[in-house]
Amino acid sequence: MYDQAKYKPLGESKFFPDKRAARALPDGTVARGWLRSDQKLYQGRQGHDLVATLPMPLTAELLARGRDRFNIFCTPCHDRTGSGRGMVVRRGYQPPPSFHIDRLRDAPVGHFFDVMTNGLGAMPDYSSQIDVGDRWAIAAYVKALQFSQHAPVSDVPADKRGALDQPPAPLPTPAAVREMGQESRNKPVVR
Fold first, then answer.
1. Per the domain annotation, does 132 fall within a domain?
2. Which of 5, 77, 125, 153 is the most exposed place for a label (fewest CB within 10 A)?
3. Could you report the per-residue pLDDT of 122-174, keeping only the tens digit for each?
4. Which domain covers residue 79, as residue numbers?
5. How many structural domains comprise the chain?
6. pTM for the model
């Protein structure tokens, strides 16, 4: 087994007329798992047009996954509200447009998928970091985020509209606790 007959990568072969051991793949060969025949799912397009609907059902789990992935991959530039004032922008990176401008609010969901897949302007593509299902989840969450910032009052139930004019209730302040070994410090740790 130690000295078995085999070809080394890019080695010479006396068997083939071109003397190459590495053979070209037959025409039409597709690596297992890489047949991307569903254009709507893998490219966010139907023909040349961007899709306006998700290629999967919109569920609470999909939006939760989208929020999770958005907070990981998108908030450094776009921040959690999508206004384009993320931490790297505050440190000097070129600011992205806000998701809440009219042009992007009117954009179909396929636009956001396409930009994540192929990049646009200063934004690099994220197709190697974020898989297809998660890109669609992020795109769905972006559309929900846009709606949350620009929902019409007519969508609020009539019995809840009065609460819109009231100031929000103050958040409870966390109790100060001392961590173990920190008794001698002047400042308590607030969690």
1. yes
2. 5
3. 999 999 999 999 999 999 999 999 998 888 888 888 888 888 888 888 878 76
4. 39-149
5. 1
6. 0.71
86: Cβ contacts below 8 Å, ≥ 6 apart: 75, 76, 77, 78, 79
Query: Residue 78: CB partners within 8 Å, gap ≥ 6?
Result: 70, 84, 86, 96, 99
- In a domain? residue 165: no
* Contact residues for 188 (Cβ-Cβ < 8 A; gap 6+): 176, 177, 178
Pick the closest to residue 63 from 150, 155, 142 (CA basis): 142
DSSP per-residue codes, 28-47: T---TT-----HHHHHSEET
Tell me if 107 sits within 8 A of 61, measured CB to CB.
no
Spatial contact of 131 and 42, defined as CB atoms under 8 Å apart: no
pLDDT digits (tens, 9 = 90+) for 47-79: 999 999 999 999 999 999 999 999 999 999 999
The reply to whether 113 falls in a domain is yes
Cβ-based burial of 46 (10 A; exposed 0-12, middle 13-18, buried ≥19): middle
- Residue 124's nearest CA partner among 71, 66, 74 is 74
161 closest CA partner among 169, 171, 151: 151
Q: Is residue 63 part of a domain?
A: yes
CATH number for the domain harbouring residue 135: 1.10.760.10
What are 120's strand-pairing partners?
123
Measured CA distances, 27 to 9, 24, 39, 48, 182 (Å): 21, 9, 21, 26, 69
